[in-house]
Specification:
heterodimer; A: alpha/beta; seven-stranded parallel sheet; B: alpha/beta; Rossmann fold; ten-stranded mixed sheet; two-stranded antiparallel sheet; 14 strands; about 35% helix
Chain lengths: ~350, ~300
């Protein structure tokens, strides 16, 4: 178990695939910068992979001071064992005070394994991180500058703030898309630190037989406006209206789980706890009742318009504008109004 | 070749179906109004193990950690085909975070002894952390394969598994033993078998037998009650109707790694989500309404 190291850096695990960085790594660099400035320490990014020498530049531009690169052929395709070994040995060597990971399928596979080995705390799927002093109610001890790990829990019905007093590093996975991506600053200076880690052959437990990656066709996270349809749309034909409104307003098309499960649209459009989390400037929810799982993925949107025939639908409780009515009539009116504006 | 599986299951509050009755006036959730259910993904973990047994032989052991009432999910496992059910219940395990929980579960798995597979649902719907599976694998010193979508092949000591990786899938080959976390897309869980329900609905844990004895023998001495509990437990066991009940002592757990003491993460604050209503305006479903709405969005620069 590791003792608190208050001079330790704030670290980010940089997820990449085939030499291309995951957006969440850049989002987290910005967050780490903010936390590190508050603590008066440096940021570090751990970058394991094969052929990743071109990536540190972007990480530095997004806020990294030190990029620890572990370039090894055996790290080309992610698997838990060797990646966990890399993280554990670098954490033991440099003793960062905070380590954050993207709450992606990969991050949520890796981070708990690392935490278990280090016997450190780990909080899953945070939506925000802050630094604050905390008093342990049990021992009345004051702890300076702890990481507040903020996450929805209990099916999204509550927000829990989690802290880790003494089994450091303080670690968390952070949901994609919840930290606004800051602009890159190409003039930032940072250091690339080449690291060697011994990888046991035992840790290479999996043999990759076949892999199939779907191209990411739509960019929900980057959209300024999203028009999303739910189970209430009823049919694929009706879903065309969603596309038409999105086209008129210049937005992307999203969907609730009910619409995806009902076969109205592909899973890559799904917004919510099991889909993508979005925070566009404008979110138009059409025929979406607003189950908590859906709201968790969109309620941070700056403006929300809900269109639904059921005036009791929970979506109206998070909406700024509500239209109680049939979308088949309302959408054409909206398209007309947009064209006239 | 036969394979032995241990399936970790959890009883959870039904957080996915928060009904109006479960909402308090202040907009927060009344937890006690939520029914306790079988964690949905754990049913798929159980089904995976049962399918392996059907094709290759072997055993399926269901394991849960929780309050005495969690025996309900173990009976469900028995109805669906589990050979053996173990309830790990101990007040000293309460308030365990994922690290402590995975330590306790791994000790219980080690106590079961021989296994080829440990199956878990990907995550439980009360915490949604998905951490206990990987942490349990680490404590057992075995590989993990998360997000199972289907078994591709199983022969000798090697399994080929298809796992979801978010934007696609991959097939990996792994040497047993392995811990696998299972998604809902992996299979369709079988319903409880009527004949098994008839036979196994009387399956009880020691705690349940003790509770029954206390109500039936209110005036008996402790010694008499103990003797009666023992007698009934033996009779249940004889008929294959005793759900094993373990404490932390039986699994050789280091108490400093269990419960609150073994949990590095502490809940600092809980805030109920109160659905906000301020700043809401209702727009009539008319052309005039649509124009007014678009106008407002242009004025506040939401639309360019």
């Amino acid at each position: 178990m590791m003792e608190p190291n208050r001079q330790g850096e704030v670290w980010v695990f940089a997820e990449q695939e085939d030499g291309s960085l995951h957006d969440v790594a850049l989002e987290l660099c910005g967050k780490a910068r903010e936390l590190a400035d508050r603590l008066g320490v440096k940021t570090g990014v751990v970058l394991p992979g094969a052929g990743v020498e071109s990536l540190p530049e972007r990480l530095i531009a997004h806020g990294a001071d030190n990029v620890y690169v572990i370039d090894d052929q055996r790290l080309g395709h992610y698997q838990t064992g060797p990646y966990a070994q890399v993280l554990c040995s670098l954490i033991e060597k440099h003793r960062p005070q905070i380590v954050i990971y993207g709450a992606t399928p990969l991050g949520r596979d890796l981070a708990p394994r690392v935490a278990s080995t280090l016997r450190a705390g780990m909080t899953a799927d945070c939506t925000d991180l802050e630094i604050s002093d905390v008093t342990d109610p049990k021992t009345k001890t004051d702890h300076k500058n702890l990481l507040l790990q903020i996450r929805p829990a209990f099916g999204g019905n509550i927000i829990a703030t989690i802290v880790n007093f003494d089994q450091w590093p303080q670690m968390a996975t952070v949901r994609e898309g919840v930290i606004p991506l800051k602009e890159a600053d190409a003039s930032r200076a940072g250091q690339v630190v080449k690291e060697q880690v011994a990888i046991d052959s035992d840790s290479l437990a999996l043999k990759l037989i076949e892999r199939h990656i779907e191209p990411r066709k739509i960019n929900l996270k980057g959209a300024r406006v999203i028009v999303a349809g739910g189970g209430g749309i009823g049919s694929k034909e009706n879903f065309q209206l969603i596309y038409e409104l999105a086209g008129a307003i210049g937005g992307a098309v999203g969907a609730s789980r009910a619409a995806v499960d009902g076969g109205l649209i592909g899973k890559e459009h799904q917004i919510g706890q099991t889909g993508t989390t979005v925070r566009p400037a404008l979110y138009i929810a059409v025929g979406i009742s607003g189950a908590i799982q859906h709201r968790a993925g969109m309620e941070e949107s700056a403006k929300i318009i809900a269109i639904n025939t059921d005036q009791e639908a929970p979506i109206f409780s998070v909406a700024h504008y509500g239209i109680v009515g049939d979308f088949r009539k309302v959408i054409p009116m909206m398209i007309k109004a947009i064209k006239e504006k | 070749m036969p394979y032995d599986s241990i399936v970790c299951v959890k009883q959870v509050p039904d957080t996915a179906n928060v009904t109006a009755e479960a909402m308090k006036e202040d907009g927060t959730v009344n937890r006690s109004a939520l029914p306790a259910i079988f964690n949905p993904e754990d049913l798929h973990a159980l089904e995976t193990a049962l399918e392996i047994r059907e094709q290759h032989g072997g055993t399926v052991t269901a394991l849960t950690m929780g309050p005495p009432k969690a025996s309900d999910v173990l009976r469900e496992c028995l109805y669906r085909g589990a050979d053996r059910a173990i309830l790990l219940t101990d007040p000293r395990a309460a308030a365990s975070d994922t690290l402590a929980t995975s330590y306790i579960l791994s000790q219980a798995v080690k106590t079961v002894g021989r296994y080829d597979f440990v199956f878990c649902g990907r995550q439980a719907i009360d915490g949604d952390t998905a951490q206990v599976g990987p942490q349990c694998a680490e404590k057992l010193g075995i590989p993990q394969v998360t997000y199972l979508e289907g078994m591709v092949g199983l022969s000798g000591e090697v399994a080929q598994l298809r796992r979801n990786i978010g934007r696609g899938w991959e097939i990996v080959e792994v040497r047993l033993p392995v811990l696998v976390t299972v998604l809902e897309t992996a299979n369709r869980p079988r319903p409880p078998a009527a004949r098994r329900v008839m036979r196994l609905k009387r399956a009880r844990t020691a705690a349940e037998i003790a509770g029954r004895v206390r109500t039936e023998m209110p005036d008996a001495s402790d010694g008499q009650r103990q003797a009666e509990i023992q007698r009934r437990a033996d009779a249940q066991k004889e008929r294959g109707l005793l759900i094993e009940q373990w404490t932390l002592d039986q699994i050789g757990a280091d108490l400093s790694r269990c419960g609150l003491a073994g949990s590095p993460t502490k809940v600092h604050r809980i805030q109920a989500i109160v659905l906000k209503k301020e700043g809401y305006s209702e727009i009539p479903p008319t052309e005039q309404g649509a124009r007014q709405l678009v106008h407002e969005l242009v004025v506040d620069r939401t639309l360019g």
